[in-house]
């Protein structure tokens, strides 16, 4: 298949066996926040309750040290129809994407899981030959399906990268078509320390194995309990939460920005730079606006 060598083989044992050098850098407030577990049978002690008293009724998310992004429809729009219209026209495009006998999205998921698109197109040609031209057009014109970055999300990635926050990406994507994404959107994709591509691993979100791969890749940065994961799929968000990750369902960049600021991440407010009474813009490092509980 298309699975790559095991992560431990690629990364060597050093990152896993050596001491976690970043753990000592967590702020004492961050450690305190993580130490409070309201599910403990004996309950929090008085000190814990005192530090929670000013947080209001809504539970506050714990601070996080790294961010894991989905790519399609979070950072870059994925619009299969855009790859088809010029090549085969509206009717053939709609037919390919909606024919239940064919189930384009099931084939797409198989490609995300490591199956070669040429095999998929050959199978379509054998079973549904009236869709062959459209299926091939999707591959040939894939750059049109992912032409548009989601600007507000890209801005968030840039701000986090400039602040030195470790960034990872975890995407359900065909290995061969992801090369098109790299060539089109390398300026933002290069800001990620590592991108886990399902088609290279042979496993797709939300399969439990994909979170184990993410755990290995991020271990030198602290591990999943120090991360927040962002995805536009509710099933993937639920899978991430079951694996122990803090997870955010992506709806739009402004809401995401607010959700990440709640976790103590150094981002400007969603309305853009706020002016202080002296007319000085707040610094993007979050020092003038993030609550003390987040630092």
Topology record:
Elements (H helix, E strand, L loop, with lengths): L6 H5 L2 H4 L10 H8 L10 H7 L13 E4 L10 H19 L5 H9 L4 H11 L4 H9 L1 H4 L5 H12 L4 E5 L3 H15 L4 E4 H4 L6 H11 L8 E5 L2 H9 L3 E4 L3 H10 L33
Parallel strand pairs: 1-2, 1-4, 2-3, 4-5
Helix pairs in contact: 5-8, 7-8, 10-15
Description:
This protein is of the alpha/beta class. The protein has 15 helices and five strands. A five-stranded parallel sheet has the order 3-2-1-4-5, sandwiched between helices. Strand 4, helix 14 and strand 5 form a beta-alpha-beta unit. The chain is globular and about 55 Å long. The termini are far apart. 32% of the residues are buried. The N terminus and C terminus are likely disordered.
Radius of gyration equals 22 Å
How many angstroms separate the termini?
Answer: 46 Å
**What is the strand arrangement across the widest sheet?**
3-2-1-4-5
Largest sheet: 5 strands, parallel
| Mean pLDDT over the residues | 82
Sequence of secondary-structure elements:
HHHHEHHHHHHEHEHHEHEH
As a percent range, the share of helical residues equals 40-55%
Low-confidence stretches: 1-41, 279-295
What structural class do you assign from the helix and strand content?
alpha/beta
Morphology call: globular
> Approximately what portion of the residues adopt beta-strand conformation?
5-15%
By oligomeric state, this entry counts as single chain
**How many helical stretches?**
15
The total beta strand count reads 5
List keywords for this structure.
295 residues; alpha/beta; five-stranded parallel sheet; 15 helices; 5 strands; 46% helix; globular; disordered N terminus; disordered C terminus
């Amino acid at each position: 298949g298309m699975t790559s060598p095991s992560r431990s083989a690629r990364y060597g044992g050093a990152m896993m066996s050596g001491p976690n050098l970043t753990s000592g850098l967590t702020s004492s407030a961050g450690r305190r926040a993580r130490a409070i577990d309201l599910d403990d049978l004996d309950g929090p002690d008085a000190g814990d309750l005192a530090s929670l008293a000013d947080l209001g009724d809504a539970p506050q998310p714990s601070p996080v040290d790294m961010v894991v992004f989905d790519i399609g429809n979070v950072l870059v729009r994925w619009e299969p129809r855009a790859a088809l219209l010029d090549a085969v026209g509206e009717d053939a495009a709609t037919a390919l994407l909606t024919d239940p006998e064919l189930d384009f999205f099931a084939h797409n998921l198989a490609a995300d899981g490591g199956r070669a698109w040429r095999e998929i197109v050959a199978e379509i040609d054998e079973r549904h030959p009236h869709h062959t031209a459209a299926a091939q057009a999707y591959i040939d014109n894939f750059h049109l399906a992912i032409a548009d970055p989601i600007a507000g999300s890209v801005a968030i990635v840039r701000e986090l990268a400039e602040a030195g926050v470790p960034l990872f990406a975890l995407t359900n994507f065909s290995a061969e078509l992801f090369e098109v994404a790299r060539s089109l959107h390398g300026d933002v994709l290069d800001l990620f320390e590592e991108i886990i591509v399902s088609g290279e691993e042979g496993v797709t979100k939300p399969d439990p194995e994909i979170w184990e791969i993410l755990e290995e890749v991020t271990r030198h940065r602290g591990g999943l309990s120090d991360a927040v994961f962002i995805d536009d799929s509710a099933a993937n968000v639920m899978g991430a939460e079951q694996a122990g990750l803090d997870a955010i369902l992506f709806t739009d960049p402004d809401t995401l920005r607010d959700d990440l600021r709640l976790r103590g991440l150094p981002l400007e407010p969603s309305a853009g730079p706020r002016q202080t009474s002296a007319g000085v813009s707040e610094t993007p490092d979050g020092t003038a606006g993030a609550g003390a509980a987040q630092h």
